[in-house]
Amino acid sequence: MTALLSIRDLTVTYRRDGSEVVALKNINLDIAAGERLAIIGESGSGKSTLALAIAGLLPASSRIGGLIDWHSPEFQSPHSFAPPSVLPDISPTRREIGSSTAGSPSTTLAIGEGRNDSAISPLVGEMPGRTEGGVKERERFEPTAKSSRIPLAGRDIGFVFQDPSGSLNPVMTVGKQIAEVARTHLGLTWQQAYAKARTLLERVRLPDPDSAMSAFPHQLSGGQKQRVAIAAAIAAGPKLLIADEATSALDTIVQAEIVALIRQLVSEDGMTLLFVSHDIALASELAERIAVFRHGELVECGATVQIVEVPRQPYTRALLDAHIGLDAEPLLGRRAFETPA
Ligand SMILES: Nc1ncnc2c1ncn2[C@@H]1O[C@H](COP(=O)(O)OP(=O)(O)OP(=O)(O)O)[C@@H](O)[C@H]1O
Ligand code: NI
């Protein structure tokens, strides 16, 4: 399988109240093109930080070390600190990236240790102290070569957050906000973009897409809002879809529907999926591979069946054990739990 991106020695530190929080420590991870990879771990383990780092959406208060290589001729770093050619290669594992040797289409994304000033996050000022929030357009520095471009959240990377209200504009119609993504990134006319938005609402199976086009987010249910957020996230045809706890705020049935929808869209569009969740059972329903995070470290990574059936780490075992009913038909267990006495 071809790697979409390689993460090498990625370390992310946040500054908070004068002290530093190390959110990720020396992460090494490859993401294959077209795979469905889940990132799991308890709260604060660094899952969202990884997702934001990949999308180039970390707040300016963060510092990044290590590198992210996109193995695509189209892409450049979303947060490299200088053109790769003038930066020293500080990563001891750099040579392990087979396809990033000279002449390869790989592009180095982040090299060295530096304050993340170049990545101007839309989260800055909007959601201080949080990693979840709305992704809207953000300023970017220009690519150094015309032939390659910076992988951009919203265009090349679709991002779906836990709270769809955070990513949807409350005073803009559903149709217009999806159309705006298509217009901005695909260069469509408004008319074409609205037609695309209408098609996308059908694809995400929103009931009555025609009236939904002129609806405002508050007129929709949580699950419907999340469908709209997903439509907006895939509107520009991203290569990578990142869903960060995208179903965590929804009830079990809607959660299953959204997971099924994500699976279908990812397969139809040939997208790579990064599914961030604290729920190992949900992750195992969707992902082919699971990476387990704890205290900012990647403790275990393997095929879903291996992680679920023969976890190597006690921590993974504990996550599995903590999930009620995983070993004993979870859906039946949940249904019995929900049935009124
Ligand atoms: N903007 C920020 N400023 C300061 N510290 C932060 C910021 N965002 C995250 N952190 C800290 O970094 C660590 C990792 O947080 P992160 O949000 O990546 O974890 P997570 O696994 O996504 O957790 P959750 O499941 O609660 O979403 C935590 O200690 C968190 O408090
Ligand atoms: Ni998170």
UniProtKB/TrEMBL annotation:
<dbReference type="InterPro" id="IPR003439">
    <property type="entry name" value="ABC_transporter-like_ATP-bd"/>
</dbReference>
<feature type="region of interest" description="Disordered">
    <location>
        <begin position="93"/>
        <end position="136"/>
    </location>
</feature>
<keyword id="KW-1003">Cell membrane</keyword>
<dbReference type="InterPro" id="IPR050388">
    <property type="entry name" value="ABC_Ni/Peptide_Import"/>
</dbReference>
<dbReference type="InterPro" id="IPR017871">
    <property type="entry name" value="ABC_transporter-like_CS"/>
</dbReference>
<dbReference type="InterPro" id="IPR027417">
    <property type="entry name" value="P-loop_NTPase"/>
</dbReference>
<feature type="compositionally biased region" description="Polar residues">
    <location>
        <begin position="98"/>
        <end position="109"/>
    </location>
</feature>
<dbReference type="InterPro" id="IPR003593">
    <property type="entry name" value="AAA+_ATPase"/>
</dbReference>
<keyword id="KW-0472">Membrane</keyword>
<comment type="similarity">
    <text>Belongs to the ABC transporter superfamily.</text>
</comment>
<keyword id="KW-0547">Nucleotide-binding</keyword>
<feature type="domain" description="ABC transporter">
    <location>
        <begin position="7"/>
        <end position="320"/>
    </location>
</feature>
<keyword id="KW-0406">Ion transport</keyword>
<protein>
    <recommendedName>
        <fullName>Nickel import system ATP-binding protein NikD</fullName>
        <ecNumber>7.2.2.11</ecNumber>
    </recommendedName>
</protein>
<keyword id="KW-0813">Transport</keyword>
<keyword id="KW-0067">ATP-binding</keyword>
<dbReference type="Pfam" id="PF00005">
    <property type="entry name" value="ABC_tran"/>
</dbReference>
<dbReference type="GO" id="GO:0005524">
    <property type="term" value="F:ATP binding"/>
</dbReference>
<keyword id="KW-1278">Translocase</keyword>
<comment type="subunit">
    <text>The complex is composed of two ATP-binding proteins (NikD and NikE), two transmembrane proteins (NikB and NikC) and a solute-binding protein (NikA).</text>
</comment>
